[in-house]
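Collaborator request, handled under Task 6.
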Amino acid sequence: MPENKDFERELTRIDQDLGQIKRDFEVYFAGASKKPPLDALKKLEQSVKRAGVVQGLSYAQRFRYNTLTAKFNSYRDLWDKQLRLKEEGRLPGGASTSKHQTYDRPVRETERKQKQDPLETIFQDYVSARQKTGETVASLNYENFSQQVATQKKALVQKLNCKDIEFYVAIEDGKTKLKAKAVK
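Structure tokens returned to the collaborator:
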């Protein structure tokens, strides 16, 4: 059992380090720091990978690890994109957002989703998730996706006798899936 407590401490440390690196990147993108915290990011990535090979975890520990890994990967993708924009000169120095970046703050993500068609947002999330899992996205297009979703929605509303169906993207066993939830 001491190994489980050590693993719990490791997960807590990873979560705290992720929060610190997030703040460091915010400081960097705000222009208050000259250098991005890439060394700390690399150390955290190694810690996440080391924790991933631990065997004999409980379901709760595996869930917590997977949640932290997903959070880390999301932030990593965001930071990579912001760094690329900054290198290309499209991210103004001293500003963490631009018209190209709308999802670095929850408020802006909510605003973006309100302005955008919900189905288009789901499609973008689906494509992004497939890219993260290494699945092919070349054959995906919005029209076919929206037709499939409309067909599935109609069938599920009738089958489940509900008012509406909400779709969301999930990754299970390394595969991207479109999930549905009935709205009563």
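The cover message to the collaborator said: "Residues 2-91 form one domain. The first strand starts at residue 164 and ends at 172. Please let us know whether this matches your experimental observations."
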